[in-house]
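thread: overnight batch results

M.L. [08:02]
morning all. the overnight job finished for the chain we discussed friday. pasting input first so we're all looking at the same thing
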Amino acid sequence: YEYVKAFEQHPGLLPNTFIVVRIDGRGFHHLSSRYDFEKPNDRRALDLMNAAATGILKELPDINLAYGISDEYRSVSN
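M.L. [08:03]
and the structure it wrote out:
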């Protein structure tokens, strides 16, 4: 299978591009039931998700932007 190596590409990232990381809430339904979050947007749940995103931004300074949609957050870095 040596011929396959001719099709392999360097695993590096392209220059001048952005990296988007999607963080999906695992077991969010269970968490919202346990703490009796109001649907669709409980202030405590929103504050919790914003605090998590803020913590990620502080810990990883290369991240330029974080935003939430539903029960998931995305982070953008370059």
